[in-house]
Design a protein that fits this description.
The chain is of the alpha+beta class. The protein is built from 28 helices and 32 strands. Strand 2 and strand 3 form a beta hairpin. It is globular. The structure holds O-methyl-L-tyrosine (0A1) and zinc ion. The site of O-methyl-L-tyrosine has 12 residues, from strand 20 and helix 2.
């Protein structure tokens, strides 16, 4: 067993203790059935629980119940009061028999629950969030995912204020009580861990539909929202039905209850929650109509609805043995929702978006102080491990297995996994073993993807021997150390590869190259002329690739590669090389040699793509977007925010100016396409705002007028927000007029007002900091709503040039937020530590200020363990 008091541990890390994966033990006791009775009100809820306990194995250890909130007011064992004792973060008592019935009562104050974990109030309704350890805030319980029980839930509340009473499973009975109260009894026949328990009580409106499963079962579907929002649920409902059909078609998985309910709440820490039969959603992932939601929002809703639905199998039917296995359900489910969204729209665009996300959040995480394997070895607060690594890198790991196996064998591996572990709490190892057997793969070395943190570095070089017609691909892998993992064993890296003939502009077929050694060379015969290397096509492995390739070859790939991702990647690389060279040149002549492609060539490639008929508008917009400043920073040893900002801005201006006419043509062409949700119309909207952005970057004299015109005439949020985002960065009268009109139009619509905050703090306007200070004091800003906090602060901290302004005032602003928010909502606060934790990547002055802020946070008395863990790790 690992020692928690290691020499390096910060004193703050010793209590509460670090939990280690290696210490896993099955529970001493299990709960077979749970009967819960709730008397609900906003300020006080009374809970009465009956638990059927069973001793697990031969031992004489006491029953220990986790508890983080109300202690039991009464606790009886087989009808007799028990003398329980407090023990750590729980209570314990002795039970002489192997089976026993425990009854207990607790009392909760939901409207004071600002952490939004357990039972809480949101906008006059009541709801729960139990993943990962929220159930213990409702009653003391064996609150771990390998303790699976059958739940029966009786809810009682005032009928007028809480006409809707929901829990997991199916409604058994309901009726009226005295004094204007009513009740509803729910039963869920599927044994489940406590993190999947849920209840909702409120005055909600339902949108209803139904789905017939492939075996002919009718499922009643409902989406519950606050009155007034029911006109915005159609897209979510559509996504739900499409997900149900897709999981049957692609995985053979059918829904298993007669009802599937979704509830939207406005105060929620995360995106959504997959409670059995009763998904609870952050309202931003349910509510949409053309006037209030962008195409991006529509896609996000479709993806999250699918994600939660797919959890019914990958997460609920087969759940996790312990929280170290989180990626078992999350990585797999993200992979499943990515494939679903690809099938619903454009596979190429979806892949680019997912890789962009991965590089924007997971790669930096993996290169910093909070790096951890997709299956972590230890944690202090599990909420801190709902990370991009566990989710998105976890999905990449599943994707690599799918690539290596091919679709049929991958499906056979999944079938075996679900068949073998249905109804169980499983491990990542169980999944890998099922995949090995079902898909006939040897995953011995591949298991390292679960063990090692960090992004592998792969170097590739293609050598050509004209005399023999041989092309030799030289590959090499290495891996930087990450916290706690100084030495990295070799990884198996699947690289989809093609050699493209320069004359034919085509290849002879793709090869899956498995890089398993430190260095490897592969020969390809029959190439009289050197072909062009296209490698890691479709981003088949989540690695950083360094390919020795002439810039002319990159331009060739942009024009001729048949893999859309590879085309995108080649242009990104061209642009990155150009910008890095421009940044070096800002220091004056005599810097590094400039091998990057010329600006003229970049403009020529962009010029071709602006009107290339072979790509659709959605892909066009994707490919012609410049890498973000943050991503450029990631490519540099020491991030230089001002230089990156200046170089990128200059390149945008050049692309805007020199292609001004084509951009105007695109903007006009796209503006003529009427609103619809068709792929063409959506693509047109995407390319329209991209073109507008370049027109604005060109500083064309009519740019503000065109943007304002797009804003004012928009009949949908995509165009309106697209124009406003551009205006928000401009110093023009139209900016204030548009922002005010947007605010006035949508006052009272929280999700749109969130956009209004974000557009300002994420802008390139020179006074963002001052605007930020005003917005913090705005009457609509509140610390108690996580969406609002994120809407204001997240674009600000992601706005590299602003957040990292040399004075350090951006860091101070974030530190003030952390100190104020932590006492209210530690889980949401802890997510804001990572931006300060990147201090090693910056110059000494900035690094010193960032560290100083982390130390100021750590000095705060009573700091939550969520924030403590992230700060201590960031300082180590
Ligand atoms: N399992 C959910 C994510 C989630 C995790 C923790 C939460 O606590 C506030 C909420 C949701 C998912 O993957 O969608
Ligand atoms: Zn999930």
């Amino acid at each position: 067993m690992a020692d928690i008091q290691t020499a390096t541990a910060h004193p703050a890390m010793q209590d509460p203790p670090v939990i280690y994966r290696a210490d896993y033990q099955p529970p001493d006791w299990r709960v077979e059935t749970v009967a819960l009775e709730f008397d609900l009100d906003l300020s006080a809820a009374e809970v009465h629980a009956t638990l059927a306990l069973v001793r697990n194995g031969a031992h004489d250890r006491p029953v220990r119940l986790d508890c983080d909130g109300p202690l039991p007011q009464t606790l009886d064992l087989d009808g007799q009061p028990v003398n329980w004792r407090s023990e750590g973060h729980g209570i314990a008592f002795d039970v002489p028999t192997d089976r026993a019935t425990v009854t207990l009562t607790t009392r909760i104050a939901p409207d004071t629950n600002t952490q939004l974990m357990g039972l809480f109030a949101s906008n006059g309704m009541l709801c729960t969030q139990c993943e990962a350890e929220g159930f213990r805030r409702i009653i003391p319980f064996i609150d771990r995912p390998d303790n699976m029980a059958v739940y029966e839930v009786l809810l009682r509340a005032d009928k007028r204020r809480f006409p809707v009473l929901l829990s997991n499973g199916a409604l058994v009975e309901s009726g009226d009580l005295e004094d204007g109260r009513h009740y509803a009894r729910w039963h869920d026949p599927h044994p489940k861990p406590s993190y999947l328990f849920a209840l909702v009580a409120g005055d909600l409106m339902a949108t209803r539909d139904s789905f017939t499963t492939k075996s002919g079962q009718t499922v009643d579907l409902a989406i519950f929202v606050r009155a007034g929002d029911e006109g915005r649920t159609a897209h979510a409902m559509q996504a739900l039905k499409a997900s149900m059909a897709w999981d049957e078609r692609v995985y053979g998985l059918e829904y298993d209850l007669p009802v599937f309910n979704i509830v939207a709440v406005s105060d929620f820490n995360m995106g959504a929650m997959e409670n059995k039969g009763l998904n609870i959603f952050n309202s931003r992932y349910i509510l949409a109509d053309p006037d209030t939601a962008t195409d991006y929002d529509y896609d996000a809703i479709e993806g999250v609805v699918a994600h939660e639905y797919f959890h019914n199998w990958s997460g609920n039917r087969v759940t996790c043995r312990d929280w170290f296995q989180l990626s078992l359900k999350e990585g797999f489910t993200v992979y499943r929702d990515q494939c679903f969204s690809a099938d619903m729209g454009s596979e190429a665009v979806k892949r680019i978006e997912d890789v962009r996300m991965l590089r924007a959040s997971q790669f930096p995480e993996d290169a910093g102080p909070l790096a951890h394997p997709i299956r972590p070895d230890s944690y202090m607060e599990i909420s801190n491990f709902y990370t991009s690594t566990v989710y998105n890198k976890g999905a990449e790991v599943i994707r690599m297995m799918a690539t290596m196996a091919g679709p049929e064998r991958f499906r056979a591996g999944c079938d075996l996994y679900f068949r073998r572990h249905d109804g169980e709490a499983a491990t990542c190892e169980d999944f890998v073993r099922a995949m090995e057997e079902g898909a006939s793969l040897d995953l011995t070395q591949f298991r390292r993807w679960y063990e090692q943190a960090g992004t592998p570095q792969v170097q590739a070089r293609l050598e050509h021997d004209a005399a023999t017609g041989t092309a030799t691909l030289h590959l090499r892998q290495n891996f930087a150390a990450t916290p706690g993992q100084p030495v990295k064993p070799l990884m198996p890296i699947p690289l989809r590869t093609a050699l493209i003939d320069r004359d034919m502009k085509a290849h002879r077929g793709e090869t899956l190259v498995m890089l398993t050694e430190a260095e490897q060379s592969l020969q390809f015969e029959g190439y009289a002329r050197a072909p062009v290397l296209s490698i890691n096509r479709g981003f088949s492995a989540p690695v950083n690739l360094d390919v020795a390739r002439a810039s002319g070859d990159l331009a060739f790939l942009v024009r001729h590669d048949d893999d859309p991702f590879a085309r995108y990647e080649a242009l990104q690389q061209l642009v990155i090389d150009r910008l890095i060279a421009d940044i070096a040149a800002l220091d004056g002549p005599g810097g590094a040699e400039d091998h990057a492609v010329s600006l003229d060539e970049i403009i020529a490639v962009f010029g071709d793509l602006v009107s290339d008929q072979r790509i659709d508008d959605s892909m066009r917009a994707e490919i012609l977007s410049l890498p973000t400043e943050a991503f450029l920073g990631e490519q540099m040893l020491v991030v230089r925010p001002e230089a990156i900002h200046a170089a990128r801005r200059a390149l945008r201006k050049a692309i805007g100016l020199r292609l001004l006419d084509p951009w105007r043509i695109v903007h006009e062409r796209a503006s003529a396409v009427p609103y619809s949700l068709s792929r063409e119309a959506r693509g047109a909207r995407k390319v329209k705002s991209l073109a507008l952005g370049y027109i604005a970057s060109a500083e064309a004299s009519d740019a503000a007028a065109i943007a304002f015109d797009q804003f004012a005439r928009a009949d949908n949020m995509t165009d309106r927000q697209g124009a406003l985002a551009i205006l928000a960065s401009m110093q023009a009268d139209e900016r204030e007029t548009a922002l005010d009109s947007f605010y006035n139009r949508y006052q009272g619509n929280a999700l749109v007002i969130d956009k209004w905050f974000s557009l300002q703090t994420g802008s390139a306007h020179p006074r963002v900091h001052e605007q930020m200070l005003e917005l913090i004091r705005h009457k609509d800003f509140t610390l108690t709503n996580p969406n609002r906090v994120r809407a204001l602060y997240w674009p600000f901290v992601s706005n590299q040039a602003v957040f990292h302004e040399a004075s350090g005032r951006g860091y101070e602003l974030l530190t003030d937020l952390v100190l104020k928010l932590d006492p209210l909502n530690p889980q949401t606060t802890a997510r804001f530590i990572a931006p300060l934790g990147r201090w090693r990547r910056f110059d000494e002055a900035r690094a010193g200020m960032m560290r100083g802020c982390l130390e100021r946070i750590l000095a705060q008395p009573g700091l939550s363990k969520d924030v403590t863990e992230q700060v201590v790790k960031s300082l180590e």
